[in-house]
Every structure is written in C-alpha cells, then in structure tokens.
Design a protein that fits this description.
Structural class: alpha+beta
Oligomer: single chain
Shape: globular
Largest sheet: 6 strands, antiparallel
Strand order of the largest sheet: 1-2-4-5-6-3
CATH superfamily: Hotdog Thioesterase
CATH class: Alpha Beta
Helix content: 10-25%
Number of domains: 1
C-alpha cells in the first residue's frame, strides 16, 4: 500500500481535485471526493470530467498495484444520476489480468449508496515499475 500511496500522491491532477485515496490492494482501490463548488458544471451538478477523473484515479491505482506499470488503452464511462453535493466514493475492481492486458470496473456512489456512474477501463501492462524513484 505504501508504494501505491506514493504513486497516488504523485498524481497532481487528483491532488488538485481533492481526491483522497482510502484503500489500495492488488487489483483494487477506493477513493473519495468531497463535492465542492469547483467540481460543478453550468447546471450546478458535478462535472462529468470530475467523475471521470475520480474513476480514472482509482483505475490507475488498482491497475498499477502489482509493481508493473499499467497504462490505459481504453476507458469509457456511463452517467446515471446527477450529483450536486456530498461525498462521492469510487471503487475499482479487477475483472481480468494477463501478462500484457488487464480490465477493471469502477463504480462511483454518492453518500447515500446510489451508484451515480460506472467506468470500465483496460490497461497495457509494461515491464517496469509504476513508481520511478
């Protein structure tokens, strides 16, 4: 987990948005985001790009958790429910992993447990460490 905390903390955009890593283990990750004014779009709901970034942050942690650099080669997201306030939680779960490819499913829930978004991503796994020292 320590390496993944350092990996996550080096993600300047996730830090800027206020995303907080809660858990990380092989093939899994969980993070939260407290919705603030900066996260809202013109409709006063959480911007789709913020939801994508939250999902992408846990996707990165989960997919890089084996000590092998993993780089996204495909990602898509579906939006189910608008959010205007509260805490959002993203949870990544590995669906499959081979030597070169891995697939992940990420769900984002509001603080009432409603799923507001679903993200699917695929990575290409390289042969180097994800954290460069």
């Amino acid at each position: 987990m320590e390496d993944m905390v350092a990996f996550f903390e080096s993600d300047a955009f996730a830090q800027y948005l206020g995303i907080e890593l809660m858990e990380a283990s092989e093939g899994r990750a969980k993070a939260r985001l407290e919705v603030k004014q900066i996260h809202l779009n013109s409709h006063k709901t959480v911007h789709g790009g913020v939801l994508f970034a939250l999902a992408d942050a846990v996707f990165a942690v989960a997919s890089n958790s084996y000590g092998t650099a993993a780089l996204a080669i495909h990602a898509d997201i579906s939006y189910f429910k608008a959010v205007t306030e509260g805490i959002l939680t993203a949870e990544a779960q590995e669906l499959s992993r081979s030597k070169k490819l891995a697939n992940y499913s990420i769900k984002i829930s509001d603080d009432r447990g409603n799923v507001v978004s679903a993200f699917q991503g695929m990575v290409y796994r390289k042969e180097k460490s994800p954290v460069q020292k």
